[in-house]
Amino acid sequence: MNRFISDFLNDLRKEFFGYNAAALQQDVFAGVTVAAVALPLALAFGVGSGADAASGLITAIVSAFIIGGLSGASFQISGPTGAMTAILIPLSVKFGIHGVLAAGAIAGLILLLAGLFRMGKLVYFIPAPVVAGFTSGIAVIIALGQMENLLGVTSEGTETLERFFEIFSHSFSPNFFALFIGIASILIMFFWPKRWASKIPGSLVAVAVTTLIAFVFRLPLDLVGDIPRTLIHESRLTISSLLSSRLDQILMPAFSIAALGMIESLLCGVAGGRMKGEKMNGDRELIAQGIGNIVLPFLGGVPATAAIARSSVAIKSGCRTRLTGIFQGVILLLSMFLLSPLMSRIPLSSLAGVLIVTAWRMNEWHSIRYIFGRKFKYGAAKFLLTMIVTVVFDLTIAIAAGVIFATVMFISKISDLQVSVAEIDPKRLQGRIPPTKQTQIIYITGPLFFGSIEAFETGMSKTSGDVLIVSLRGVPYIDTSGVQTLYEICSKKHADGVEILFTGANQKVRDMMDRAGITLLVGTQSYFANPFDAVGLMESE
């Protein structure tokens, strides 16, 4: 822990080196811009998480100070996100808001431990199609989960798909005023000019315009409701409520929340780091996310994670240091105290429209077009599998299924070991091997491991020479199963009086062969750099 603290202080000194009034002005401007983007999203994600708008606002404010202040990068903006609502909606239906908060606190502990155990690079082991797949799956869940608010109806059920189909299973009677407001919100966001969006976000305009319409015409709509002017929500988690929670049933959702928080935060750091030219400390980011998510439930906030969209807005707006996120938190805090009467009048259908557009935009369309446009069949299969499992089952299961499928496909591809046998013309032999002996060269190409043993054994069964020169130049890696099989073949050949020579083995392969007893069997004199050195082969004329 001392090392984490000293590294953090050193990075802070580097981050604020040469900091001046001009840099401060840039951070303030970027903070105000990000706050304009974050305000409507915080309200929408709070409602979309099964809590309320106040919880979303508390999450955004507290995240700005705690997670933003301790973050592993200067540009990370954290808060409630659309992706997180996909997990929290069914959780809130099953266990209520206290189930959401309890799972969030446990997820925070998991993230903290992940950071302390230096698991900040785990995200690099998840294939890109799997990331794109679960992101699209989450987008589908968000959109389906907002159909009730968009249509102004209610349904029963514990799962998102179940509730969605329940809407249309009986006499369907939508509130057309809610539908109108929701569609208006969607259209404003889609058609809001990009050149204006950098100054005034389309989501903020959509919420403001639709709220004004609903207020002026007194439309019969469900509203956000009162937003308390406090950072301590009345429905906050307490130690007693945490201990009384059904921990055995919320443990898996907590792992899902932690997994999503880890993936989103680290991917956000990678993307933002490329934009700003700054390398994020992944382990420290996980620690910051962990601490923030442990604190948030006890104030009534929902689980938070780094948000790619808001972080990119911060960078594009001139973010210099982590003060950008803190200034964003100050603006949101002022909004809570000054604008809460206005925010309480926002229609839920308006926020549903914001979430649906957010879900559409969160799809990694560039990756999807690349995977399907280039006809990468295995990549497309990983994407579709992960997306479908995310929608039908669970995020954690989806990631596991995607990674397992990708691993199986990878093993299947690299198991295609090539073994080719070539005869050497006796007339070209000179030196240590008599021309009367049949000499063969066996070229092995590919990793020699448990998945390629059958191909290796099949190839070696075709050899019949008195002297076998085994070229290992094309073998980058050999595992225990592979080296054991090689030893058994060498032992059998050696017992039959066949001389075996090895050429081109890299150091790691040679070390494994030494440990396996192959070197002891054939002797150190049986290793050569290439086949010419092994047999004194003459160049062909």
Summarize the structure.
The protein has 541 residues and is mainly alpha-helical.
Would you kindly provide a written description of the structure presented here, covering whatever features stand out?
With 541 residues, this protein is mainly α. It has 24 helices and seven strands. It has a five-stranded mixed β-sheet. A two-stranded antiparallel sheet has the order 1-2. Strand 4, helix 20 and strand 5 (467-474) form a beta-alpha-beta unit. The longest helix has 35 residues, at 82-116. The protein is elongated, with a radius of gyration of 31 Å. It starts with a helix and ends in a 6-residue tail after the last helix.
Termini separation? 69 Å
Structural class: mainly alpha
Helix content: 55-70%
Give me the count of strands: 7
Largest sheet descriptor: 5 strands, mixed
Taking all Cα atoms into account, the compactness measure Rg is 31 Å
| Overall morphology | elongated
Q: What is the spatial order of strands in the main beta sheet?
A: 3-4-5-6-7
